[in-house]
Amino acid sequence: MKKLPLSIAAIGISVLSAITPLSVTAEAPAKAAVPAAESPDSVAAILNGKPITLAQVEMQIHKQPILGYQMKQAGNDPKKIAQVRLNAVNTIIERQLLLTAAKKDPSLKEEEIRKSVETFIKTNYGDEERLKPLLKGIGTTLEQFKTEVTEDFHIRAYLEKLVPAKATPSDEELKKLFDANPARYAQQESVRARHILRLYPPQATEEQKKAIKEKADALYIEATKPDADFAKLAKENSEDGSAQNGGDLGYFPRAAMVPEFEKATFALKPGEVSKPVETQFGMHIIKLEEHKDAAAPDFEKAKPMLARELEGRKRGEAVQAKLEELRKTAKIEIKLPQP
Q1: Are 115 and 261 in the same domain?
Q2: Tens digits of per-residue pLDDT, 25-46?
Q3: In the chain, N or C terminus with fewer CB closer than 10 Å?
Q4: HSE (CB half, 13 Å, CA atoms) of 292?
Q5: Which element (helix H / strand E) includes 159?
Q6: 285 forms bridges with which residues in the sheet?
């Protein structure tokens, strides 16, 4: 399946992004505390007669990276917290509307989706026993994970049908987009890195953190031995989705990762391994594979990115139109206080 634009894909992503929680949009996946005066069972919204509880809203914030980051930025500001919760409940509503529409589409075959899910899990996470501790770290179970991933695949398949395959865009189209903002297509300074992540469990105690730090220290010693195979160590010991790929996180620019991780990674030279780095997710041992310097915009090099952007815009417009259509036929009551 083609990759959807992030703003749209977020509707169909539940636990997937939380398993590899490093991007800056995922900076704060921890749940916001529910004030004592509020009950998790309080009704946040009603969609077609079915309630959406405050607990569901808080869980959505917990597992959707951008919402977690927004909640952290909100601090103790009631209006900002209310806005994040409103964003979360609308995400739940839109996801459910798309899922319902997808399940009514006879062209989407359940068996094909089931096989796609099995292949996805095996390719990205290996066997199910290895996946269980990763899921425990984000507060979900294997069955919940399978259910939500299956729903995600339903939604993605449905969204992809909204826009027929488009012919390759012309150079004129691409050049127009490029000329509108050339700086956007400059090559940013970027790095490619691997890491080994030892996750903190939810509400980790100081004793638990201490044990995880000790484990990270031991792994650092192993990773810095002359004959160390960092990829093998990551595959055997890392507790996030990158483990299957030997901890490989691919290329990323500055400001794409949480601050502590970014600072440590960009301070390394290719081949170097960092001492254990602490983030809110746990302890990381990082190995820098490659460092790319910034470069001026180049139209020829930017063509693939420009083509993806044009396709993403068209898909985004189609999805927004579909959501507006689905909302018009749905009965929606928002019970949350307005920001």
Answers
A1: no
A2: 333 334 444 444 467 678 999 9
A3: N
A4: 16
A5: helix 142-162
A6: 196
